[in-house]
Amino acid sequence: MTLSRASRRLAAALTTLAAGAAMAQSSPYYLGVAQSLGHESNLYRVGDGQVLPAGFSKSDTVSGTSLVGGVDQTIGRQRIYGSANLRANRYANNKTLDNESYGLNLALDWATVGRLSGTLSAAADQNLAQFNNRAVGAGVETKKNVVRTNQVDAKVRLGVVTKYTLEASLGHRDRSYSAPEYDSAEYRQTSGSLGLRYRPSGALSLGVALRITEASYPKFNQTAPGVYESDRLKRQDIDFTATWLPSAVSQFNLRLSPTHTSYDRDTGSDFSGVTGSATWGWQPTGKLKLTTGLSRDTGQSSDAVNLGFFGTGVTDYSRTTSALSLKADYELSAKIALNAGLSYAHRALTNTLSQGSTALDARTGSDNTTVLSLGARWLPTRSLQVGCNASAENRSSSNPALSVGLSGNSVSCYGQFVLQ
Questions:
Q1: Domain membership flag for residue 94
Q2: CA separation (Å) from 323 to 78, 108, 357, 370?
Q3: Prediction pTM value
Q4: Is 146 exposed, middle or buried (0-12, 13-18, 19+ CB in 10 A)?
Q5: 418 assigned to some structural domain
Q6: CA 155 → CA 111, 121, 339, distances in Å?
Q7: Which of 52, 79, 97, 381 has the highest count of CB atoms within 10 angstroms of its CB?
Q8: Domain that holds residue 243
Q9: Which helix (H) or strand (E) holds 13?
């Protein structure tokens, strides 16, 4: 993993923990500061057989100084909640990567006196994109690349308190990069779904929905200086979902989706088949919680992106990604918590490579990624918390033109002080 990804994880964790601390207090607002320090052994994700150019350091130490804040306010039937973090990231050896990042999230849960309710949400973030060396012969990526993502979503539900609930959603997301080498990965995506959920008992909920997604890639292929061909993605899913609570300490969630994906230009990534995910949460004791996840999906839509294999802002070029994750959380005491995770992902890779003309060359391959993580957190007071995280990653690849084998590890610690 890159340290930039590790630092972003810390920022997200700090914001989440601060929100939890704020909700435990009477005040609906919180404001705090955080400081992290970590070390990354393979910052540029240099692959097997790749050589880092002179003047760059493969390992590095990075510090992050953050301002975090948030709100969670109920007004009648409505609830407004959100979080924000502003972060200055500084590298000890690779100072050209110094950057400022942010993450903003705001949502409104609304309800009428009848059976109509919903959620409106918006999010924006800016981060240093994870280095993504895909080919041995292409050289090691070293350029600073800032990724920006904006997203808005709306969900509406009718009949929440009945056995049947009608659900509709609409969302839009766009992503851009500062490095021109990633022009082809910039996109604008709109998705919508309409479905019905049936709850025959308090322990079982079943659902079916039609989901349609369209995305455009304005600069998919450069045919001449300043001249680009665009690409368009169309995806249709029928989502069959189920939530089952077999006991008070166990929950099972399932999604199975017949999926059809097609591209205008990148036809090598077309897909027809079954995607889905399954998660099982089990709390055998009051202190121990175990979570198991299994998923299979396509490209950027893959649930595996959220498992930590690919950093924020990285385009997953896989045709499909199949992933398994195991996570354990243990409360050693009221103030000390431990966690451990193990994840494995297999990607079926494809990439339609630009040749600087209208001719495109489709290549295929696969890679396997394993990530092990350990963490600890201590909350000596409601306002103060400290913690450390360590992780190790190993990746093997069948086609070095699409994905390089690599390994790396990182360790980081943080401290945070929050006022409610």
A1: no
A2: 37, 32, 36, 10
A3: 0.85
A4: middle
A5: no
A6: 12, 9, 33
A7: 97
A8: 77-82+103-406
A9: helix 3-23
